[in-house]
Amino acid sequence: MGRILVNNRDEMEWEPGLTVTELLRRFRYTFPAIVVTIDGEVIPEEEFSTRQIPEGADVRVIHLIAGG
Q1: Could you tell me where the beta strands, DSSP code E, fall in 1-68?
Q2: Cβ–Cβ < 8 Å for 30, 61
Q3: Distance between CA 30 and CA 68 in Å, rounded?
Q4: Cβ atoms 8, 63 nearer than 8 A
Q5: pLDDT of amino acid 68
Q6: Which of 13, 29, 61, 68 could be a cystine partner for 24, CB 3.0 to 4.6 Å?
Q7: CB 39: neighbour CB atoms within 10 A?
Q8: Reading across the β-sheet that carries 10-13, which strands appear in turn?
Q9: Structural domain boundaries of the chain?
């Protein structure tokens, strides 16, 4: 099986049907505001549970924080 790259540093085994929600669960990302991109495309949060990640994808998970 292939691999995917997460945040330009973590590689993980790719498997058919891997969704954004499953990836976030595996990496224990629980931030309240998260932006996810797959190969540069921003994925809407409402698609996290259905959007499948393709083999060899470059996935970025960015948590948004407020500050001042």
Answers
A1: 3-6, 10-13, 34-38, 41-43, 58-63
A2: no
A3: 22
A4: no
A5: 60
A6: 29
A7: 11
A8: 10-13, 3-6, 58-63, 34-38, 41-43
A9: 3-63
Q: Which residue has the higher pLDDT, 1 or 57?
A: 57
pLDDT, tens digit, 9 for 90 and up, residues 3-60:
999 999 999 999 999 999 999 999 998 888 899 999 999 999 999 999 999 999 999 9
Angle CA 40–42–45, to nearest 5:
150
Distances (CA, A) of 23 to 4, 7, 67: 10, 12, 27
Distance CA 61, CA 5 (A): 11
Two structure tokens written together for 57: 């994808």
Placement of tokens 């998970």 in the chain = 61
3-63 homologous superfamily: Beta-grasp domain (3.10.20.30)
